[in-house]
Design brief:
By secondary structure, the protein is mostly helical. Helix content is 75%, strand content 0%. The chain has helices spanning 3-27, 33-50, 52-55, 64-89, 92-99, 102-113, 120-138, 149-173, 179-194, 209-236, 239-245, 248-261, 267-284. The protein is globular, with a radius of gyration of 19 Å.
Amino acid sequence: MSKSRLYAFLCLIFTIIGGGMVATKYALLSFSPVQIVFMRLLIPACVYAALYRRWLPLPYRKGDWKFLALIVLFEPCLFFICETLGMMYTTASQGGVIAACLPILMGLAGWLFLKEKPRAQLMIGILLAVIGVAGASWFGSASDAAPNPLLGNLFMFCSILASSLYAVLTRRMTQRYPVLAIAAIQSIGGALFFLPLNAFFPLPEAVHASSIVSVLYLSIMVGLVAYCGFNYSLQQLTAGEVGLFSSLVPIATCFFAFILLGERLSSLQNLFIVVTIAGVVVAALPERKKTRP
């Protein structure tokens, strides 16, 4: 796949993930955070288990179990639970401000652990994207209550920190393991981790239809489609490049919130959305090659 198609593919992937934040709000109407995380992992785990012949046997190397276990720990375990808890205690706009830090953390992690030297053009794009996302999120009008914004924002920061470390590990492991195998290990390992924890949370007395639809969206669109695409992108691009497009997540969240929750975008939000798109375009433009006279 060409680089331009990969960039377009990443836009679609992170738009789907952005919709997952709104879906989580609906799912919380009926289920606890642990139940939501388990259910969003259960369907992908069953699918990958049924397709085991496509990703087994693994080309395992001695000592790789530590990296594979950390991938499962960082994402889905820590990322999903922290993101879900964050949506319980803070607003979508404040959560979007925290999520705007993800490209910086992914680029920084790629530089520190993978020795991926960021291009100046990429850094300018990341800066513009972060400014745009932060501004669009900050000036948004939240429709949901925030009982403890400080705690919720802390959970959101922990989720993007876990996602950054996950991206670095996945970037490394996809050089040796198939993308499908990494996704299968994530889903099956995460489902097994959360399965016993459900015993501590009673089943809901009433379940909203919107909650069921939201869990299915989180399971199929985010858990299957988006994460397979995300892992494939990390195999083809640097962590910094992939992290840049995560700036579209809060923008997509604002869009879905406008469509589904009736939230309006202000003039300032629209302005910062344009800044974000400009950042993505700047980073996606091919680098000019220096020619000798």
